[in-house]
Amino acid sequence: MSNQSAVGNRTINPASLPKPSGYAHGILAGNIVYLGGQTALDKGMNIVPGGIVEQFRQAFSNVLATLEEAGGRPEDLVSVTIYLTDVDDYMANGREIGRLWREMAGTEYPAMAGIGVSRLWQKEALIEIQGIAVIPER
Q: What are φ and ψ of residue 60, in 5° steps?
């Protein structure tokens, strides 16, 4: 689902994601998609169990669903920021997370940052991912 503002920006809220309240999953401004932070919420508004690897899978899936709804592809990502409540846990699972990235987005990598934080909006969340994508004319 999307809505267009008076200035031409389009709100991107995929039906496959939890319905947002007070935020948007993404904003398409021209050919740039600003992807709001996604935790590992499933459609039922629950953080998926299974630790950092499963939470990465769900959070990144949510990001990619928003990007796809805007007309983009994983290779259109130009910047990704990952917020982590346990950087050491993420690093310890880096090989598996890297494998998931390649499976979900391929081998092209955007500019990235990983930031340790004390907690995220949902107490059970271990990770939040946000990004920016530029969609070329196809």
A: -70, -35
User: Rounded distance, CA 77 to CA 127, Å?
Assistant: 18
pTM score, whole prediction:
0.92
**Residue 51: closest CA among 120, 123, 114, 124:** 124
Could you give the CA distance from residue 97 to residue 114 in angstroms, rounded to a whole number?
13
- Which two tokens mark 23? 């935020």
- Contacts by 6-12, CB closer than 8 A, 24 or more apart: 10/70, 12/66, 12/69, 12/70
101, HSE (Cβ side, Cα atoms, 13 Å)? 16
| Residue of 92, 76, 79 whose CA lies nearest to 129 | 79
Cβ-contact 16, 43 below 8 angstroms: yes
The 10s digit of each residue's pLDDT in 23-64 is: 999 999 999 999 999 999 998 899 999 999 999 999 999 999
